[in-house]
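F.,

This is the one I mentioned.
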C-alpha cells in the first residue's frame, strides 16, 4: 500500500499519541509551560508515525527507531533545560485546563482521522471485493467445467484457481471435421493479470481453431498473437490434442502437441502402463518463431488421457516436498476404473491432503471407447 493512502492513519496516530504529552503534563498538575507541552506533543506524535512507517516498510529498523527515540528525547530535554528559553509556567488551574482541553481536541481529531481512513479504505476494499467477485464470475464463465460424453469418448475438465481469478484454462472446441480440439493452458503469474491474459488466450485459440489447422500451425498462430496482448514478462504453456469424435478401429489415434507444458499422459487399461508424451516445444509468447511439432498417439478402448498443469504436481508439504508426478500417477491408477469426475475429485483431495496449493490447478481427463469392426462374412 503506498504511503500516500495512509495519510489519515498517520494523522490519527499522531493525534492519539500526542495526547501522551498532555497526560504527562496533567500528572504534574499542569506545571509545565504550554510551549514545552506542545513541543513534546509534536515530538511524541512524530515518533509514533515513524514507528508505524518502520513497522510497515522496514521492520528490521525498529530497533534503530527506538534508539533514535531515546536519543531524541534526551537531546530535546537537554535543549529545553540549557537554552534558557524562559517559557512561563502557568498556574495550576490554567495548566490542568490546557492539558484537559488539548487532550479532548487531540482525541477528537484522532477519531476523525481514523474514521476517514477506515471510510476510504472500506470503500476501496468493497469496490475491490466487488470487482474480484465479478472477475471470479467471469472466470467461471470463461472456464466452465467440461463435461462431454459421446458413444466413444468422454471428457471431464475442471480448473481450480488459487485466488479469486486464475490464469489456467481448459477448453474443448468442436471442429468442422467432427473432431474435438481439447487443450489445457497455463498463464504465467497469478491473479487478475493472469486471468485477463487467459481470456485473451482463449479468444486467440478459438479464433485460430476455426481454420482447422495442424496443431503445430495452431500453436504458431497463437505464439504470433500472444505478444501483442500481453506484458513482456508474461507467457503461456499449453498442451493440446485433437480427439476423434467417433473412435473406430481404423482411426484409433489422436494428435497432440505440447508447448512448454508438463507432459500429458495416457493410462492404458489393457497393458497397465503409462505413456507420457514427449517432444515438447518452447512456451508461447517468449520467442518470435520457435518450432512446434505435432505427434500422434495410439489409443485403445479403456485408455485414459490426462492433461494437467504444474499446479497439481508442485503442491508442497511442510517439508517442502512436492506432490510430484509419481504421486499423481498413483492416484490415477488407483481410481482408473471410476468415473472421470470421481478421478478428478480424488486427485484434488490427495493434493489438499498433501499441502496447500499456491498455484492454479487444472486437469482434463478423457476416456476412449473404441468401436470394434463388424466381422465380415
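My design for it:
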Amino acid at each position: 500500500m503506498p504511503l500516500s493512502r495512509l495519510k489519515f492513519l498517520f494523522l490519527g496516530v499522531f493525534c492519539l499519541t500526542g495526547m501522551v504529552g498532555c497526560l504527562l503534563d496533567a500528572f504534574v498538575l499542569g506545571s509545565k509551560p504550554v510551549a514545552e507541552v506542545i513541543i513534546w506533543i509534536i515530538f511524541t506524535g512524530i515518533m509514533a508515525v515513524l514507528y508505524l512507517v518502520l513497522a510497515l516498510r522496514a521492520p528490521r529498523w525498529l530497533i534503530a527507531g527506538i534508539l533514535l527515540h531515546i536519543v531524541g528525547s534526551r537531546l530535546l530535554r537537554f535543549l529545553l533545560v540549557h537554552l534558557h528559553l524562559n517559557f512561563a509556567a502557568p498556574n495550576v488551574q490554567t495548566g490542568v485546563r490546557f492539558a484537559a482541553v488539548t487532550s479532548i481536541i487531540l482525541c477528537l481529531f484522532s477519531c476523525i482521522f481514523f474514521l476517514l481512513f477506515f471510510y476510504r479504505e472500506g470503500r476501496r476494499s468493497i469496490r475491490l471485493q466487488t470487482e474480484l467477485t465479478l472477475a471470479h464470475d467471469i472466470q467461471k464463465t470463461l472456464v466452465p467445467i467440461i463435461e462431454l460424453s459421446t458413444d466413444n469418448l468422454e471428457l471431464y475438465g475442471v480448473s481450480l484457481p488459487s485466488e479469486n481469478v486464475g490464469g489456467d484454462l481448459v477448453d474443448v472446441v468442436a471442429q468442422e471435421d467432427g473432431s474435438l480440439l481439447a487443450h489445457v493452458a497455463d498463464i504465467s503469474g497469478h491473479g487478475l493479470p493472469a486471468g485477463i491474459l487467459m481470456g485473451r488466450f482463449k479468444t486467440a485459440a478459438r479464433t485460430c481453431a476455426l481454420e482447422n489447422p495442424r496443431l503445430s500451425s495452431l500453436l504458431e498462430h497463437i505464439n504470433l498473437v500472444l505478444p501483442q496482448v500481453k506484458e513482456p514478462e508474461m507467457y503461456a504453456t499449453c498442451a493440446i490434442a485433437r480427439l476423434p469424435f467417433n473412435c473406430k478401429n481404423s482411426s484409433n489415434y489422436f494428435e497432440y502437441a505440447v508447448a512448454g507444458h508438463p507432459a500429458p499422459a495416457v493410462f492404458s487399461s489393457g497393458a497397465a502402463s503409462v505413456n507420457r508424451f514427449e517432444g515438447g516445444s518452447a512456451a508461447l509468447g517468449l520467442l518470435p518463431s520457435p518450432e512446434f511439432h505435432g505427434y500422434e498417439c495410439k489409443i485403445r478402448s479403456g485408455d485414459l488421457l490426462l492433461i494437467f498443469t504444474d499446479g497439481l504436481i508442485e503442491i508442497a508439504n511442510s517439508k517442502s516436498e512436492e506432490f510430484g508426478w509419481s504421486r499423481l500417477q498413483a492416484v490415477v491408477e488407483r481410481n482408473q476404473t471410476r468415473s472421470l469426475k470421481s478421478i478428478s475429485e480424488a486427485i484434488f483431495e490427495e493434493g489438499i491432503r498433501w499441502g496447500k496449493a499456491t498455484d492454479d490447478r487444472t486437469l482434463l481427463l478423457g476416456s476412449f471407447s473404441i468401436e470394434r469392426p463388424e466381422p465380415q462374412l
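The mean pLDDT is 85.

Talk soon.
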